[in-house]
Amino acid sequence: MTENELAREAVDIAYQIHKYLGPGLLESVYEEAFAYELTERGIPFTRQEKVKIHYKNVVLDKGFRADIIMEDKLLIELKSCEKVDNVYHKITLTYMRLKGIKLGLLINFNVNLIKEGISRKVNGLED
Q1: Residue 126 has pLDDT above 60, yes or no
Q2: CATH number for position 20
Q3: DSSP labels for 28-81?
Q4: Longest dimension (CA), the chain
Q5: What is the Cα 45 distance to its own chain's centre?
Q6: What is the pTM of this model?
């Protein structure tokens, strides 16, 4: 699948989860449901994948982890918070840059309508 096809699947998954569970749960619950849906759809993914930081001649392994990466092409950062601060947008873009991924979605489930909680991110461009 292309990045855009994966993004369409991810948006549909977020919609289905939000419709069924609603807002107000822990981020880990939404991540578990997201992984379940990806498995049911047969879409390869990783969870909590380490994001390594290369600095000069060393690799800094400080425990940064991307929530979900679909087919090594789409990074999904999940939140369940009252307000998505700008720092979460920057973190998502930084993870994408460090992993060499072009497209990402920052999804906040703590909203009335899930479409209000989805932000599309493109590596190297401000969205």
Answers
A1: no
A2: 3.40.1350
A3: HHHHHHHHHHHHHHT--EEEEEE--EEETTEEE----EEEEEETTTEEEEEE--
A4: 47
A5: 11
A6: 0.90
